[in-house]
Design goal:
Blueprint: H1 10-44, H2 46-50, H3 56-88, H4 90-110, H5 114-117, H6 120-150, H7 156-161, H8 166-184, H9 187-194, H10 196-214, H11 220-227, H12 235-242, H13 244-274, H14 280-308, H15 310-331, H16 336-355, H17 358-361, H18 371-387
Helix pairs in contact: 1-3, 1-4, 1-6, 1-8, 1-10, 3-4, 3-6, 3-18, 4-6, 4-10, 6-18, 8-14, 13-14, 13-15, 13-16, 13-18, 14-15, 14-16, 15-16
């Protein structure tokens, strides 16, 4: 006679949900914390610290060149961690990526400048940025699969949207740290050592993320793949052979979101401050206020995607971004900070209409046995095309 299972208590179920969603979220927060922090540091301080012999404008360009290195590494990271996720589990990806990314960020904060070790400093900076990009190549994919594959089908988009708040929260956290330090320190102190503190904090966040993710169980989807022996033997080769056009199609959708995101943050920051329209502090506060609205709107967009369909929301967001981007560029520099905040908020709301459902839409284009590789490769290819080109 079989013994009936004891149903899980509601408190235990809620605890499991909280662990899953928090573990999924913290990695994408760290990912965009690192990227936003590096972009801000590249604009403000990395040029003088690592390329002091170049002219100021050239040094800044060189610093942004190292920023692009992280994007170049992301497709390679997607191949590596995509294979791991489809062969050995989503949990293995989550634990690996958060450590690789966070430790590289910590090492950047510890790296001596050009005045201490000469040309080895910029070389090491490029290498660390490359390692950071490798880890980020699997981070978003692991996070959305963890949340989405644990989620009930009716709310899969809402659960998968929690990692999608990472861009806004990471941006707010990174630039909040920079603002506090720049206000508390003199310009000389900030350039000398103060800029390193947020990078050290990124390392501490990574350790916390690793410990949290170690307590999360494997997703039910991968457990079933393991149980029936249907895991892909060579997921990268199979995706490239069978789903190449689909990878390119999904990458195109991701390209749109990354291009708009970095236009509304990194490029807008450089444009407004470079032309003396506003101070760096005022511009950062303005962009952070717009990002806060974007973060709040993310679960709303995801819930609408669960109701109306992720594909329909993606198409609507693509059209909205196309209609908003050109006026946004024209409005920069006109009307001061209120216009900057309003126009950036509108553009980011158009962005989140599409970005908010990508956690469900992108993985949904690939079968479970190839889901990690297909999602990681298409997402990171789009990230390179949309985020790396200079603006």
């Amino acid at each position: 006679m079989s013994v009936p299972r004891t149903p899980r208590r509601p408190s235990a179920a809620r605890g499991a949900v909280n662990r899953v969603t928090t573990a999924a979220l913290i990695g994408t927060v760290i990912e965009f914390y690192d990227f936003a922090l590096y972009a801000t540091a590249a604009a403000l301080v990395l040029g003088p610290v690592f390329f002091p012999e170049a002219a100021p404008a050239t040094a800044t360009l060189a610093a942004f060149g190292t920023f692009a290195t992280g994007f170049v590494a992301r497709p390679l990271g997607s191949l590596l961690f995509g294979h791991i996720g489809d062969r050995f589990g989503r949990r293995a990806v989550l634990r690996s990526t958060v450590l690789v990314t966070g430790l590289a960020t910590l090492a950047i904060g510890l790296l001596p400048g050009y005045d201490r070790i000469g040309t080895a400093a910029p070389v090491c900076l490029v290498l660390l940025r490359f390692v950071q990009g490798l880890g980020i190549g699997g981070e978003w994919t692991g996070a959305v699969l963890l949340a989405g594959e644990h989620a009930p089908p009716r709310h899969r988009g809402l659960w998968a949207s929690l990692p999608q708040t990472g861009p806004a929260l990471g941006f707010l956290l990174a630039n909040g740290c920079v603002l506090v330090l720049s206000a508390a320190l003199t310009a000389e102190q900030f350039t000398s050592w103060g800029w390193r503190i947020p990078f050290w904090c990124g390392g501490l966040l990574a350790v916390a993320g690793y410990l949290l993710r170690s307590a999360v169980t494997e997703t039910p989807v991968f457990a079933r793949l393991t149980g029936d022996g249907s895991r892909a033997a060579a997921p990268v080769r199979e995706v490239l052979r069978r789903h190449g056009p689909r990878v390119l199609l999904v990458a195109g959708a991701v390209t749109c979101t990354y291009a708009v995101h970095y236009t509304a943050t990194t490029w807008a920051m450089a444009h407004v401050t470079g032309r003396g329209i506003a101070t760096a502090t005022a511009t950062l506060l303005c962009l952070m206020a717009a990002m806060a609205v974007m973060a709040a709107a993310t679960p709303v967009a995801a819930a609408l995607g669960d109701r109306w369909g992720a594909r329909r929301m993606s198409l609507a967001g693509c059209v909205a971004m196309a209609l908003c981007t050109v006026p946004y560029v024209g409005l920069l520099g006109r009307g001061g900070l209120p216009v900057l905040w309003a126009s950036t908020t509108v553009l980011l709301l158009a962005l989140i209409t599409m970005l908010g459902v990508q956690g469900r839409f992108v993985p949904g284009q690939f079968t479970p046995r190839l889901r990690t590789t297909g999602t990681a490769l298409s997402y990171n290819l789009g990230a390179v095309l949309g985020g790396a080109p200079p603006r």
